[in-house]
Amino acid sequence: MAMSVGQEGEEDEVISAINTTPLVDVMLVLLIIFLITIPVVTHTVPVKLPNETIRPLQTTPKTIVIAVNRGGDFFWNERHVDGAGLLTQLKTVSVMTPQPDVDVRGDQNTPYEFIGRVITACERAGVAKVSFITEPPPRGS
Whole-model pTM? Predict the structure, then answer.
């Protein structure tokens, strides 16, 4: 083996390559340590958890449809009722929790007076939400 002293006019060269051997040795040691310790850490105790049954809550109230024809007849979900019967049924419905929505369907040729009677009966009974059912516009317009 020969060793260069560097006195013969040669300048010391800077070695630009990184020696990766110590880095690889350290990484292999860490890998072995992790492989040995991970199964010990992931050991768990078996526990039987309680079962829970999910019961869906009724959050959406049912909808009541009151239809009014041209003659001023009232229909409670397609069943004929008179004005006094409409008010008593609305009073019984208004105390329910959650309060059902009331939808009013009126014929196009129904005078507003009859629709106004339904709205007044809903107001007297204490119904909070009243909406009108209309025919949607034709497609493409």
Answer: 0.55
